[in-house]
Amino acid sequence: MNLVERVDQEAELKRILGECATGKGAVVLLEGPGGSGKTELLHRTAEHARQGGGTVLHAGCSRAESALPFGVLGQLFSSVPAADGPVARLQDLYQRLHAEDVGQDPVPAAGTAVIGPGLALLLDEMTAALLELADEAPVFLGVDTIRHADASSLACLLYLARRTASARVAVVLTDDGAAHRRLFRTELLDQPHTHRVTLRPLTEAQVAGRLAAHLERGEAERLAGEFHAVSAGNLLLLRALLDDHLACGGVRRDGYGRAVLRQLGRLEEPVAAVARALAVLGSAEAPARLARLADVDEGTAESALRTLESVGLVTGHALRHDVARQAVLDDMAPEERTGLRLAAAALLYEQGCPPREIAPLLVEADRPGGEWSVHVLLEAAEQELLAGRTQRAVAALEAALRAPVGAGAERAAVESRLVQVRRLFDPATAERHLTALSAAARTGALSPARTLDLVRQLLWQGRTAEAGELLDRLRAARPEPHSEAAALLEDTEKWLAWTHPTLAHRTHRPAAGPEQRPRPGAGRPAGRGRPAALLADALVNGRAHELVGQAHQVLKDRGPTYDLSWPEEPALLALGVLLCTDSPDAAAWCDRLLREGHTPYSPTWMAMLSAMRAEAALRLGDLPGAVDHAQQALNHIHPGAWGVALGAPLGSLVLATTRMGHYDEAGAYLTRAVPKPLFDTRYGLHYLHARGQYHLLTGHPHAALADFLACGDRMRAWGIDVPGIVPWRTSAAEAWLDLGNHEQATRLAYDQLGRPGTNGARARAAALRVLAVGGPVARRPQMLSEALDLYERCGDRYEQIRILTDTAAAYHELGDNRRARTHVRRARHLVGLCGAAPLSEALLSFPDDNAEDQLFPAGAGATDGAVLTGSERRVAALAVGGYTNREIAAKLFITASTVEQHLTRVYRKLGVRCRKDLPVELATGAAEAVLGQEA
Fold first, then answer.
1. Per-residue pLDDT at 719 exceeds 60
2. Are 568 and 609 in contact (CB under 8 A)?
3. Distance between CA atoms of 253 and 323, rounded to whole angstroms?
C-alpha cells in the first residue's frame, strides 16, 4: 500500500534528510500507536536515503532480545557489508564491546545504562568512525520499536546523538508513545536537533481514500464508515479488513483475526492480560471486575484499556468486533480459556450479577463450576425462555445436565425440562433423552406431572410400549382423588382417547345428556390440562357442537405461555372442534394464530398449526392452499421430527394433490416411510383416508375400499366413530358405487345418516350425495340440491363442484338441458377457484352453448343483467361464487337482511327462483374486485 495518508509526515522526513546532507544532523522520534504505519514509513525513508547515495544502518528491536547487551548496536553495525575504512572500524569496535568488560551498570528505573570510562572510550572511537563515514556520504541510522531496545544500546544511542548535531547523520527512532524509557525519551527530546513526528489513526475520509485505491469509488465511500468503525483507522487492521472484503466480502478470523493477534502481540503482557479478560467478560463496564480477572490493579487495567483503544482494538467497553473477541479467545490454550471463564463466572456470581450474564460463561467453559453453578444455569434457562431465546435456554440446561446435579430426581427434573424445551423447535433432538427419563420414571425419580409429559413425548416418537408401561404404573399408583396428580391423569386419559385411543383407559358409555354432565371443573381441581381435556372428551363422544363457544373462548384467551407441557394442545383441540363442526371461521383462526406466532417461539407449534390450516383448506376446497400449508408444516420441522403426527400434513398433501390431479406427486408422498405406530393414532386415520382417496381417484376401488374400511374398523374399535374425523362410510360407499354395488353404498349412507351426533352439514351432505348418485335419476336433483345447500353452508368448493356436476348430469339425463348448462357454468366457475383439474376435465363432457339466449334463464331478457345496480351485481357475484348470505354480508360490510333484499330483487329482475339458477357470468365486472380481495 502507498502511504498516501502520510504524505505530510513523509515530506517532513525527506526535508530532514535534505538538511542532513548539508551537514545539519538530526534525531527524529517517529511516534504513533501500533499499526499506524511507523515501520513502513521508516523503511520508505531509509530507501529514500539509500537512493540519495547515503549509507543506511538499520535495526529492529524485539521483546525477545531486550535483555541482550548492545544487541541493537550490533544490528546497526552489521547491517552494511564489511569493508575497509570506517565501517570496518565500527564493526571491530562492536566486537570489542563484547570481548571486554567496559563497566556499564544497568539502571532499570531509568531505562538506560550508566556509561563507565571504558565504554566512554569505545563510544568516542565509534563516534569518530561514524563521523568519518558521514564525511564520505550522509548516514541514515534507523531503529524500529525503540521501546524494546536493550539498555546498553540506548545509552550508546544517546551518546552518539549528543555528538552528531553538526554532522551528516540522521537518526530515526520509532516508538508508540507509551510511558516507558522515560529517562531516555526525556534526554533525547532535550537535544536541540531532535524532531518529533506523530502519526495518528486515519480519519474516515482517509479510510475512504485508501479503499478507493482498490474498490470502486462509490463502494469505497459506502464501506468507509464500517471499515473505520472496525479498524479505528489502524493501518494494520484496515489492510486485513480490505483483504477479507476482497476475498469473501466479510470479516475472517484468518485475516482480521490474525491482525488483531499481531497487534496484541506487540503490547506488554499486562495489556494482553486485560485484553484476554475483556474477551471473556465481553464488556469492561466494571473496570474493577476486569482488573480482578486479569490479575492486575485497577489503574493498570484502565491504562491497558486506553492502550487497547489507541491501537484500534477496543471501543467503549468492548472489543470492536466479535471476530476480534473470538480470535483472542482462540489464541489462548484450552485450559487457560476454560479456567478464565470459570473464574469470570465465579466473580460475577460473587458480585450478584443476573444468571443470564453468568450462564454463557459456564456454557462456554463446558465444565461445571461450584455447586452454585447448576442453580444459576437453571434460573438462566427460565429467563431465556421468558425472553423467547429457546436455543440459549437449551444450552444452559445442557450445561446443567453435564454438572454433577446430585440426586437422581434432581437430574431427571433437569433432563425433563430440557426435553420440553427441545421439543419446541426440534422434537427429534429430544428423543436421545427419553431412554434415561424412562428409567428415571420407573424408579420413581420423576413426578407424576413430568411422567405424564414423558408419556406424550414417547407417544410422539412412536414408543408406545414404553408409554403404556409408564401409564400402567401411574394408574396402579391410584393417586389421591381430587388431587392434582389424579386430575392430570384423568385429563391425559381423555386426551389419549382422542389422539392415541389404543392406550386410553376409559369406560365406554353413552354420551350423557346436558343435564347429566358435570360443569367444567366441578368437584375437582382445574388442572392445567382442563380445557384440552374437555375439548378432547367432546370430540371423542360426538359432542363437539356443544363446545364451539368454549373452543372460541380458548382461542381468544390464548396468549404467551411459559408452561412448556404441550402448551399448544388446547388451541389445536379448539381448532379441531371448529373443523369437526364445519365452523366457517376455523381457517381464519389458523391464519390469525400463524401471524401471532408462539411465545416462546416454537417451530413445532407453527408446524402443527400449519398442518391444521392445511386441513381447514381441504375442507374449504382450497386445494392449492392445502398443499402450500402442508408443505410449510413439513418445512417448519423436518419430516423425521414429526413422529407419528406426520400423518396429519402428509395426509393433507396426498389428498390435496390427488384431487388436483397430480397423481405422480401424490404417489411420491405415499412412498415416504411413515412410523408403524402412526396407524394406531388419529393421525393414521387421516393418512389412511387420504391413501384411500388416492386409490379411488386413480381407478383402484378395491384398494380404496380396504383403506376406508380399515379406518372404520379402527374408529369403531377405539370408540371414536363420530362424524368430523374422517368420512369413512361415505368414502367406502363411493368405492362400492365404483364397484357397482349400490346396495352396500346405500346401506353405508343410511348408516351415516342414522349415527348419533350427526349434526354437521358435511356428513349429511356426503350421505345425501351417495344416495342421490346411487338412486333413481328422477330423485337426484332434489337430494343433490339439499346436499349443495349444506356444502355451501360449509364453504366447501370442491364438494360443491362435484354436486353441481352430478346435478348437471341428472338434468341432462332428464332432458332439461337449460338447468344442466346453468349448473355446469357454476361448476366451471368454481373449478377455477378450487384447482381441481380432474373435475374440470369431467365438465368438458357437457356441451358448451354460448348463444346469447342461453346467457340467462328463460323469461329473462339478454340485457336484463345490465339493469342490476352495482350493489346487486356484487351480491349476486358472491352468491354465484358459493358464499353464504352471512359471508357476503361480512365481505361487503352490510347486514344479512340487506343481502337477502338484494338477492330477492336480483331473482325478480332475472326471472329466476333461487341462487342455483343465477348465471355464472354475473361473477365478472364489479364483483371481480371483491373476489380478488378474497383471493
1. yes
2. yes
3. 6
pLDDT in tens, 650-708: 999 999 999 999 999 999 999 999 999 999 999 999 999 999 999 999 999 999 999 99
The amino acid at 768: L
Report the candidate in 280, 395, 284 with the shortest Cα–Cα distance to residue 331: 280
β-bridge partners, 60: 144
- CA nearest neighbour of 191 among 169, 149, 159, 168: 159
The predicted pLDDT at position 2 comes to 52
Q: What is the pTM of this model?
A: 0.71
Residue 861: what pLDDT?
38
pLDDT digits (tens, 9 = 90+) for 98-142: 666 554 444 443 445 567 777 788 888 888 888 888 888 999 999
Give, in order, the Cα–Cα distances in Å from 93 to each of 268, 369, 461, 510.
33, 61, 86, 116
- The separation between the first and the last C-alpha atoms of the chain, rounded to the nearest angstrom, is 60
652 contacts 611 by C-beta, under 8 angstroms: yes
> How far is 556 from 529, CA to CA, in rounded Å?
17
Kindly state the cell numbers that stand for 1.
500500500
Count CA atoms closer than 13 A to 437's CA, side-chain side: 28
Query: Which pLDDT value is given to residue 376?
Result: 93
DSSP-based helix, strand, coil % in the chain, nearest 5: 65, 5, 30
CA dist., res. 577 & res. 549, Å (int): 10
Residue with cell 388431587: 483
Among 573-582, 650-659, 794-803, 818-827, which range has the highest average pLDDT?
650-659
Report the alpha-carbon angle 276-280-284, nearest 5. Answer: 85
Contacts of 641 (CB under 8 A, 6+ apart): 426, 427, 428, 429, 604
For 177, which DSSP code? -
Res. 743 pLDDT band, cuts 50 70 90: very high
C-alpha cell of 311?
Answer: 491501537
Query: Any long-range contacts for 344-350 (C-beta under 8 Å, 24+ apart)?
Result: 344/277, 344/280, 344/281, 344/293, 345/369, 345/373, 345/376, 346/370, 347/289, 347/292, 347/293, 348/289, 349/373, 349/376
Of 398-412, 562-576, 801-815, highest mean pLDDT: 801-815
171 Cβ contact list (under 8 Å, min separation 6):
26, 27, 28, 141, 142, 143, 157, 160, 161, 164
- Please give the single-letter amino acid code of residue 205: A
Other CB atoms closer than 10 Å to residue 804's CB: what's the count? 27
Annotate 193-227 with three-state secondary structure.
CEEEEECCCCCHHHHHHHHHCCCCHHHHHHHHHHH
Grid coordinates standing for 258?
490474525
For residues 398 and 433, give the distance between their C-alpha atoms in angstroms, rounded to a whole number.
11
10 Å Cβ neighbour count for 250?
11
Q: Are 119 and 40 in contact (CB under 8 A)?
A: no
* DSSP letters for 233-302: T-HHHHHHHHHHHHHHSS--IIIIIHHHHHHHHTS-HHHHHHHHHHHHHS--SSHHHHHHHHTS-HHHHH
Cis peptide before 600 (omega within 30 of 0): yes
d(CA 545, CA 578): 8
Strand blocks (E) in 356-472: none
By the 8 A CB rule, do 461 and 434 touch? yes
**Sequence-separated (6 or more) residues with CB below 8 Å from residue 115:** 104, 123, 155, 159
